[in-house]
Sequence to fold (338 residues):
Amino acid sequence: MLSERRLEVLRAIVQDYVGTEEPVGSKALTERHKLGVSPATVRNDMAVLEDEGFIAQPHTSAGRIPTDKGYRLFVDRLAGVKPLSSPERRAIHNFLDGAVDLDDVVGRTVRLLAQLTRQVAIVQYPSLTRSTVRHVELLSLASARLMLVLITDTGRVEQRMIDCSAPFGETSLADLRARLNSRVVGRRFADVPQLVQDLPESFESEDRGTVSTVLSTLLETLVEETEERLMIGGTSNLTRFGHDFPVMIRPVLEALEEQVVLLKLLGEAKDSGMTVRIGHENAHEGLNSTSVVAVGYGSGDEAVAKLGVVGPTRMDYPGTMGAVRAVARYVGQILAES
Fold:
């Protein structure tokens, strides 16, 4: 275990390197930070940090820079989440508040995250496998043609046309709408098939065929929409960090084009906890020079999806973590109120 003083030295190195983009020397540390010890002691502490793999010397006679291991210790032990200022919080609220539907919410969130962090932003659409039914609407378009509208608790809206084998009256339609909603509203998608399987038997024989057709369309919709979707933005921000990628930026861009890779980066949205993966902690080789900060969002304690950013390991971790967490909180509030 490192002493508190050496942890302070490491924290100062990380802060200076993130801020200046230049390797950090002992003289600069003692001049910029009140470490309370002599330059000789700082040099000794830096030698220990280097021996233990927390910092490295990129060039002979140069200062030191943090390694992935150093950033990890910084995040785990030293970095508090930087609170956003009142103007920043107001800007987030105003930017997201005008969203008209779920696609607009996701699009605005991606742009906002990319602007706030100046990194690549990734936002996962709420997963239907973790969603519940808010309402099922049935509309008559013609005597034997219906529209089914499925609305989730996360604001997703799915529409399907249904051609019936026989005319279906308004009274029967209203009855089916009421019975269907009484069974499925507030319930998870996975539970719906079992909840409605005996519904046709409760209708008159001449209506059972249409009821079965409506239920089949509803269940097909639940299955069809389980594919995960996400949106990415701010990729051009990476061009500002060309010197942060030791080989070239191309492997990073290629990795970001693969949706499967991005979904794995965000991880399973099981809770709203924050995850930070640094450098070689990312399984995809093309992303070994990047860090990922992600957090779950949702209308309650359980996350329905995740959002986050990808950038170089030389990242303002406290600021990025604060921005990602704040945006996730606002998106969750919008979903809860929608």
